[in-house]
Amino acid sequence: MTLPLVRCHRFPAALLAAAAMVGALAALPAATFAQDASGVRMVPPSGGGADYWSRWRGPSGQGVVDGAGYPDTWSDRTNVLWKTAVPGSGHSSPIVWGDQIFLTTSRDRGRQVSVLGFRRSDGALLWETDVPEGRAERHHGKNTPASATPTTDGERVYASFGSRGLVAVDFDGTLLWHRDLGQIDNYHGPAGSPLLYGDSVIIYQDQNGGAFILALDSRTGETRWRTARSARVGWGTPIAITAGDHDELIVSSQGQVQSYNPETGEELWSCSGNLREVIPTPVVGHGLVFCASGRAGPTLAIRPGGRGDVSGTHLEWKTTRGSPFVPSPILYGDYLYQLNDMSSIITCLNAKTGETVWQERLGRPSREGISASPVVVDDKLFVTNDNGQTFVLKTGPEFELLHINDIGERTLASPALVDGTWYIRTTTELIAIGD
């Protein structure tokens, strides 16, 4: 479905003279996707997606970055390659492909929302494309009309704006299609990011009546399938996994975790145990799917591959120790790390058993003080709070705080990492961090 372009600014070339390209840095963060003995793994991004940061939580889909050469120390001046102002407001995380960085933003209390394209080498704003006019929504103070992180297949960028619909633009900012998905009635406003699975764009919208999970043709925006859901609230992002001889879509939301056939939308299994409010994205490893919910509510470790209600058969373990409200957990090696953002506490769990390995506080306790999801690179765990402080920890069975970086800006978005460079969105700027 192609609609006329409402507004697309392409900035004059004379104003965008390229800075010298950043020198050769580290290897690309191409994540490994080897199946473990159980045959369970994340479905990798297609095409060249593993070479860049093409989706929410990066190539691994879990915030784990392969490669080396990424600096672990920075400030508002130290190791800053460039800074550029981001117009409007939004908390969507950056994605990267080639020499472009893509973000979404909003203005005028959500009456105008748009997709932005920046040049990666120097941070220059290349274009801004507005989404067609539509409904404005109410949002929580930490949410915005531009909180969902876009995704790309290297040809098109796909971005969700809740009641304003889902759009696809090309790498020049031309609007290719727009789908109006109706009014999304979620009391804090929608925020879940779209997922690319093959040539389908998949998103779910839980709301007060009419909840659904939907697959669209990535080239045309036409509906491939749509399945009704009963959840009335939720802000999460689906993941796609391979479980033995088939793939599954995993949705962690109100009251339960559900699995769908990504080709048809048929529900495969469900597992009860979640609380009412669910934001974190699940992670996968050791033959398990780890799903966290609520304000320090339970974390569930579920064996996928079942059928029907698997609450009594496939729930490997359950714990309330350190469960997050907003940031997603991260799995690295044998350990699952979780951030209780209601009290600024990090917990390391044995991923196979759910037993607590260690638990420590990061800085001053702050209610809802961490929004960005953590990342792991070079055997180090990076946790950024809303004040822009990043706690750098050594991964493993012993708590070790290496140091704290302070970027000096409020930061709610999660970072992107490519070619030895961090790309961090604050509330006002996009910043490149590198040696």
Mind explaining what this structure looks like?
With 435 residues, the protein is mainly beta. The chain has a single domain, classed as 7 Propeller (Methylamine Dehydrogenase, Chain H). 0% of the residues lie in helices and 40% in strands. It has strands at residues 8-10, 40-42, 64-65, 80-85, 95-97, 100-107, 112-119, 125-130, 151-152, 156-160, 166-170, 175-179, 195-197, 200-205, 212-217, 223-228, 239-243, 246-253, 256-260, 267-272, 283-285, 288-292, 299-302, 308-309, 315-319, 330-332, 335-340, 345-350, 356-361, 375-377, 380-384, 389-394, 401-406, 416-418, 421-425, 429-433. Strand 5 (95-97) and strand 6 form a beta hairpin. The chain is globular and about 50 Å long. The model is unreliable at 1-7 and 11-35 (pLDDT under 50).
Can you lay out the helices and strands and say which pair or pack?
Layout: E1 8-10, E2 40-42, E3 64-65, E4 80-85, E5 95-97, E6 100-107, E7 112-119, E8 125-130, E9 151-152, E10 156-160, E11 166-170, E12 175-179, E13 195-197, E14 200-205, E15 212-217, E16 223-228, E17 239-243, E18 246-253, E19 256-260, E20 267-272, E21 283-285, E22 288-292, E23 299-302, E24 308-309, E25 315-319, E26 330-332, E27 335-340, E28 345-350, E29 356-361, E30 375-377, E31 380-384, E32 389-394, E33 401-406, E34 416-418, E35 421-425, E36 429-433
Parallel strand pairs: 3-30, 20-24
Antiparallel strand pairs: 1-8, 2-17, 4-36, 5-6, 6-7, 7-8, 9-10, 10-11, 11-12, 13-14, 14-15, 15-16, 17-18, 18-19, 19-20, 21-22, 22-23, 23-25, 26-27, 27-28, 28-29, 30-31, 31-32, 32-33, 34-35, 35-36
